[in-house]
Specification:
By secondary structure, the protein is α+β, with helices and mostly antiparallel strands. It is built from 3 helices and 5 strands. A 5-stranded antiparallel sheet has the order 2-1-5-4-3, with helices on both faces. Helix 2 packs antiparallel against helix 3. The longest helix has 112 residues.
Length: 213
Amino acid sequence: MIKYALISRGSLILADYTDQETDFAVISKKILIQQNKNQQKQLFIRDDYIFCFFGHQEQTFLCVCDNQDKFKQIAFQFLDQLKDAYIQETSYGKDVENSGKSQQAILSLMIKNLMDEYNKGETVVKQLQNLAKLEKDIEQVNEIAKQSIDKLMDRELKISNIEGKSKYLSISSNELKYNSKRLKKKMEGSNGINYYLLILIILVFFAIYKYIL
């Protein structure tokens, strides 16, 4: 998030803007005094903030953002766009330094609008990230619910199989009892026949014995 931004000529601040009560302007002025005279993009870390800046011709463009790696590239993109907006605003021979407070106010408003645009974009990105996270959480919940349903269906299938097997065993047990009774009756009938045959043999034996005597 862009916290503060300015446009300067040397160490003279032509316009700046921030919506926070900080000492960014004081620190930035010290950086402008001590900065190298080259036009390269540079950064200065102070506590939880990064001061990003570069020079273009006689002007310096500087902004302050949170000390996070993801903001470094965004900060320099912001400064590039700020430079282009400044060039467009002053492209008709306007001298910002000597044109009075009205021009300074115009540049400050230009900085504010650009900051709002970037910070709003950052807010939108966060909202999209939160939405993506919410969608991911919903997908995880749906997957857990699906797995639970699959497990429940598998459990019901197993119970159904057990009930089927139990019913089959019950039928088999009844058939076994029925067959056992039939076999027992057959065996009892067979034993009766053998008993009568034995008596008949004994009687025949006694008859033959008496005849011999």
